[in-house]
Amino acid sequence: MATIPSHNLLLPKPINQSAHSLSFKPHSTLLNFPARSSPVAVTRALSTTDGASTSSRLEPLENYGITAAEDVRRRDREAKESKSLRDTWRKIQGEDDWAGLMDPMDPVLRSELIRYGEMAQACYDAFDFDPFSKYCGSCRFTRKKLFDSLGIFDSGYEAARYLYATSNINLPNFFSKSRWSKVWSKNANWMGYVAVSDDSEATRHRLGRRDIAIAWRGTVTQLEWIADLKDFLKPVSGNGFRCRDPAVKAESGFLDLYTDKDTSCNFSKFSAREQLLTEVKRLVERYGDEEGDDLSITVTGHSLGGALAVLSAYDVAEMGLNRTKKGKVVPVTVFTYSAPRVGNIRFKERMEELGVKVLRVVNKHDVVPKSPGLFLNEHAPDALKQLAGGLPWCYCHVGEKLALDHQNSPFLKPSVDLSTAHNLEALLHLLDGYHGKGQRFVLSSGRDPALVNKASDFLKDHFMVPPYWRQDANKGMVRHTDGRWIQPDRIRAEDHHAPDIHHLLTQLHHPS
């Protein structure tokens, strides 16, 4: 029977649940979980709990109709069993722009959207937000133990590189900083990670290829960062991108966050862009021409992290890093959640020319996906777009959209609150219950609705799940062998930049 280590989260008492294909295997001394009777899936859902959702217990209170709900789940299981991810992964990654997969909702696509969304959620769960921690703004776990420390065992992925950005730009409401004078870094924040699927036969069999996954951290609930945006577009070529068309533009704040660096800081002396591109180059060179194996690049992020996901995916393709030495083209796919607009219409067209596929998952009541470009955007009349196309405030979303509505969930409060409507866990909950336009909301995988209240107060009160229940045990303090309580050292050499990053950067700037 597995247990959760004391340094992990304090979780609410789990409700007995039924097995589902995307599983999370907790491990702590705080709680005991019943053993599973069904086989454990290779790639487990990040941040879900073992057993089954509270939905089976709560649905009668919502007058679902047990028979109807179980019938929906049965059809879902049958559809999922009739085809596997390994056989359909190219379509799931957007080869045909997800035509026919969203209405009705394809169960394999739903599972993958939840899985990659939970990779983005892992950035929040691992981030140190505590201003009284000397490690505030860093990742709470070392890279080699990232997934295990989050309780994500047998994820099928290994964190290959951490990503950092300098906080010396005008986004004060996005970055977290410690109140103490002696800190891990005065000018850097952890921004996410690059991971790669492992060599196990089970992982390859499930995924059908090797996958490079890039996850960017966004914002949990605070939306003040939107007001910090300069809200004007500028050519990406001015920030070092390999793009000769000055008409391709992106929001200046996103560009600064992605490309700025601080040479005086060990963690941000290379820009987030440089860190990402060198790691992708390394991994594509290592795995791109593996015999008998296909390769994919998947980028994910929530909120501002979604903007960075779009921008970095464009950059990878524009730099040609998705081409192997033998000339194979590696598909680049972006799954964003509650992400804002990033660039102008020419930016959108260029991404389409490069073959980058983007699927945006949004809550229709969320204001962030409507920003920037509240008035001048892709919905404006064509005549107005032609007139305003050159202005620095005319934005355009990229890719396909899957719009969800939290008011369709019987678990969530119907009121529209800006922060809860933007919550990632709530969006993953909506994905789990979505089967198509106009169809009944029925949780498919058994994902626990209690996760919604991890960092919000969004579940209806009669479910009796306390709001904001996620807490770090003892605020990260541990008892030393001499009996004193201390904050242990966290940063390891392995979490710094790769030793050959200079060499890789030279190759990027001067390709052979």
From TrEMBL:
Residues 214-374 form the Fungal lipase-type domain. One of its GO terms (biological process) is lipid catabolic process. Coiled coil: none annotated. GO terms for molecular function: galactolipase activity; phospholipase A1 activity; phospholipase activity. InterPro entries: AB_hydrolase_fold, Fungal_lipase-type. It comes from the Eukaryota. It is found in: Plastid, Chloroplast. Keywords: Chloroplast, Hydrolase, Lipid degradation, Lipid metabolism, Plastid, Transit peptide. SUPFAM superfamilies: alpha/beta-Hydrolases. Belongs to the AB hydrolase superfamily. Lipase family. This is Fungal lipase-type domain-containing protein. It comes from Brassica campestris (Field mustard).
